[in-house]
Amino acid sequence: MIQPHSTGAQKAIEVKSVSKSFGTYQALKSVSFDIGSNEFFTMLGPSGCGKTTLLRMLAGFESPDTGSILLTGQEVVAIPPHRRRVNTVFQSYALFPHMTLEQNVAYGLENLGWEKGRIRTRVGEMLERVHMAPMAKRRPAQLSGGQRQRVALARALAPEPEVLLLDEPLSALDLKLRQAMRDELRTLQRDTGITFVFVTHDQEEALDMSDRIAVLGGGEVQQIGTPTEIYEEPVNRFVADFVGETNFLDVEVVETAPGQATVRTPFGVALTVPATGTASRGRATLSVRPEKINLGDQAQGTVFEGRIINKNYMGGYTHYTLDVAGTELRASRRNASREGDAIPLGATVPVGFVAGSARVLAA
Amino acid sequence: MTESALHAAAGGTDRSPRVRFWRDLSFWGLLPSWLLMGLALILPIAIIAAVSLATRGAHGGFTWDFNLAGYRQILFNEGWTGELEFTPQYLLIVARTFALAGATTLICLVFAVPVAYFISRQPPGRKAALVYLVTLPFWVSMILRVYAWMIILGKDGTLPRFLETLGLPAGMSFMFNDGATLTAMVYTAMPLMVLPVFASIEKLDGTLIEASHDLYGNRWVTLRRVILPLTAPGLVAGAILVFVPALGAVLEPSLMGGGKQMMMGTLIQLQFGGGRNWPFGAAIAMTLMALVLVFLLVMALRAARREDVR
Amino acid sequence: MMKGHDVKHYPGLGPLAVFFFIYLYAPLAVIIAYSFNANRVAGVWTGFSTHWYASALNNRALMNALETSLTVAAVATVVSTLIALSAALAIIRGKNVRYRKLCETIVNLPLLLPEIVLAVATLILFSLVNVQNGMLRLVIAHSAFCTPFAFLPIRARLQGMSLDLEEASADLYADRWTTFRRVTLPLIFPGVFSGAMLAFLISMDDFITSNMLSTGGSTTLPVYIFSLIRAGTSPELNAIATLLILASLILATVALLVAARGTRENAEP
């Protein structure tokens, strides 16, 4: 289900019909949503979808052409960045190269007019928390990417902002480190209770870390929901395609009811599958995730015959491309044993999926 | 003021580009440069343009009677009876100015390209040291760099003495001719050519040279068809940096060329010194400026066209 | 032994480069060598002497010229660097600057015009509005033509500096002035320093404009040296030249080292 409004009683951020154009390019088209306090909220989308523009508006580096933005109930569009209780972890980290780590973390506190002793305590505490205390006197140039990331986090969290904005902070890290940092970020968010607004184009990151995800595309919010909702109940073709892999089948809706629809598949079989709201009759798209399609003796639900026309062995699992009555279907199968990959190319095997795991999308 | 009133006031300004222009302080940042350049540069140029059209005063200076006498004098001599007689005298100076500036640019280019290439092939430490060595003479006063060549080429100078020891006749002097002027011009301009040429050669992707050889190009073909075309912007930048100041050279011709071998710069200087013909001097100055601006414009247009092609 | 085939190697470059650097430095070496010549005639070597250094240092006119040059250069450096800095900040960091290109061209205008044209034009202006004070004339003219030299390194540095850093500062509650003082200025300082050094050098070195504008009481060093050269080469002139060459080389080295260190220390990771 779509949840444009957070369930929490307190709202950290309210974005109301925000639009923004750069020249003739419309970056945001009347976007609205709320973010609850203590939420780990992710804005997910391809590059150019407007997610970074939105983040920069929350920080105060851009202002909307129309619409308003509320921070804990207060209109902030006219407030400059240095007077917003919001901090940012920049994609480039933007650590001041001429200052030590300590000085970097202290910077915000000094500008807030904290008293010296309190600053020292807080800086030590923050560096300790991100495991960078032994390097307090070093400069950013002497650090690795992961270490810089931690310092940027400490610097942004030190002033205890109401909201922490993170602009693709993991994109510069290598794969292993990225995984570790995901857990660390998640833990940090839970411990501090600060609202995190995370921007990424990596759907795996979004699914792994978020309480809720807003999928953005073409300057508009496509869907907002929990990771499971986004993955299992995509509302349209864009979301189903951008988040995870899927098979799209051209179907015809022949019967509808609230929350479900009966469709005629290209294989000639009729299925009753979940839908968003009440689908309209006629041509539509059916989305089935590859891992929901079972092969051979594991085939269950509605079963067809399919011929294997291509296969890609990936180690942990194998991707199969099947020809089912002239339609291409992709299926993935976990290689639970060494022989898991045994279905040969060209073989004709039973192919099946449970109707409840597929979904009719709005055209 | 209440918080909301503040926001309302600020919000009003935030969305109006004109007000934000002022709030950005850009105007105030630019104002000093406008004032300085307007008063110390544009205004004087406007005045000299006017003076070039004025009439020479009886005892130096000028009167505001507008005519083209200053410009006419570049090409014609006015006889006793007012008839105009073509005199190539000043045209020759313009030609010499272009010839010497062009020769300076060409010689600098011929040396700068191989030297810059050599430097770019050195290991990092030595490379930095060599760039430093190229830059260093540039910091030495120009007049001293010219003076050095007076000691070398002049009467009793290093070169004549050296030639004497080789058995050539004593008392030779290489001074006071175009060759001497050119020698000093090349020497003073050289760092200005090497640095931009080096910068563009340094940026050249080495694998392109390897790709050229891989595709059966020898060194010469690679130089002509890969290295030179790709470093052309640097060569052009260096050429402009050398050619434009060379057109306005004063020190080299006045010290090395002697009184007879004038360039446009020394001719202008003369009109505001001993010669005392301000309108004529102003006319030559305007001519020189026009030539330089046309040259720069042509270069800029060519550069713009090259950008378009890419 | 097999010799590898290095496609990037062109034969003969090494010797050419050696020749080139000898060519670059030999003339300066000649001046220095002659400055220690005891003989009054520069070309005739009769023995080693530091006599001419003593006489150079006691030369009243030389010291006056040096003082004039240093004063003019110092004032022109401060004025042109401040103007260049504010113009660079406005052009590169200003948000809604219209005619950005035009503004930049105006600052760089002195580079586009032959100096002699500018010099005589300024002379006419000063004689029309009757500015007689030589120092004032020099300071105004020098400030103008030094500005682009100060501007270019500052602009380059500012352009190379990520906007993220200034945004990060604003994000961390620093107002505009604090951001400038604590982030922008320290990070562009190597550029500001290089610009100021360049402006100082250009002012100290200037002959064409100074020769046109200086009056009896405000002879600059190059103008004074020019008059000495006109009077004929002398060992004392060589001693003066040597001192100046050494001073420039030391200054240049210090400047380059400071700029290099600043660049290294503030390198953005």
UniProtKB/TrEMBL annotation, chain A:
It comes from the Bacteria. One of its GO terms (molecular function) is ATP binding. Residues 13-243 form the ABC transporter domain. Its EC number is 7.6.2.11. It holds the Pfam family TOBE_2. The keyword ATP-binding applies. It catalyses: ATP + H2O + polyamine-[polyamine-binding protein]Side 1 = ADP + phosphate + polyamineSide 2 + [polyamine-binding protein]Side 1. InterPro entries: AAA+_ATPase, ABC_SmlMolc_Importer, ABC_transporter-like_ATP-bd, ABC_transporter-like_CS, Mo/tungstate-bd_C_term_dom, P-loop_NTPase, PotA-like, Transp-assoc_OB_typ2. Keywords: ATP-binding, Cell membrane, Membrane, Nucleotide-binding, Translocase, Transport. The complex is composed of two ATP-binding proteins (PotA), two transmembrane proteins (PotB and PotC) and a solute-binding protein (PotD). PANTHER family: SPERMIDINE/PUTRESCINE IMPORT ATP-BINDING PROTEIN POTA, SPERMIDINE_PUTRESCINE IMPORT ATP-BINDING PROTEIN POTA. Part of the ABC transporter complex PotABCD involved in spermidine/putrescine import. Responsible for energy coupling to the transport system. Belongs to the ABC transporter superfamily. Spermidine/putrescine importer (TC 3.A.1.11.1) family. This is Spermidine/putrescine import ATP-binding protein PotA. It comes from Shinella yambaruensis.
From TrEMBL, chain B:
Its main location: membrane. InterPro entries: MetI-like, MetI-like_sf. The keyword Chloroplast does not apply. Residues 94-301 form the ABC transmembrane type-1 domain. The chain crosses the membrane at residues 25-54, 90-118, 130-154, 174-199, 226-251, 280-301. It comes from the Bacteria. The keyword DNA repair does not apply. It is a multi-pass membrane protein. It is found in: Cell membrane. CDD domains: TM_PBP2. PANTHER family: INNER MEMBRANE ABC TRANSPORTER PERMEASE PROTEIN YDCU-RELATED, INNER MEMBRANE ABC TRANSPORTER PERMEASE PROTEIN YDCU-RELATED-RELATED. Belongs to the binding-protein-dependent transport system permease family. CysTW subfamily. This is ABC transporter permease.
From TrEMBL, chain C:
InterPro entries: Bact_Polyamine_Transport (IPR051789), MetI-like (IPR000515), MetI-like_sf (IPR035906). Coiled coil: none annotated. It is found in: Cell inner membrane; Cell membrane. Keywords: Cell inner membrane, Cell membrane, Membrane, Transmembrane, Transmembrane helix, Transport. Gene3D superfamilies: MetI-like. It is a multi-pass membrane protein. It comes from the Bacteria. The chain crosses the membrane at residues 12-36, 70-94, 106-129, 183-204, 239-260. Residues 66-255 form the ABC transmembrane type-1 domain. PANTHER family: PUTRESCINE TRANSPORT SYSTEM PERMEASE PROTEIN POTI (PTHR43848), SPERMIDINE_PUTRESCINE TRANSPORT SYSTEM PERMEASE PROTEIN POTC (PTHR43848:SF5). Belongs to the binding-protein-dependent transport system permease family. CysTW subfamily. Required for the activity of the bacterial periplasmic transport system of putrescine and spermidine. This is Spermidine/putrescine transport system permease protein PotC. The lineage of its organism: Bacteria, Pseudomonadati, Pseudomonadota, Alphaproteobacteria, Hyphomicrobiales.
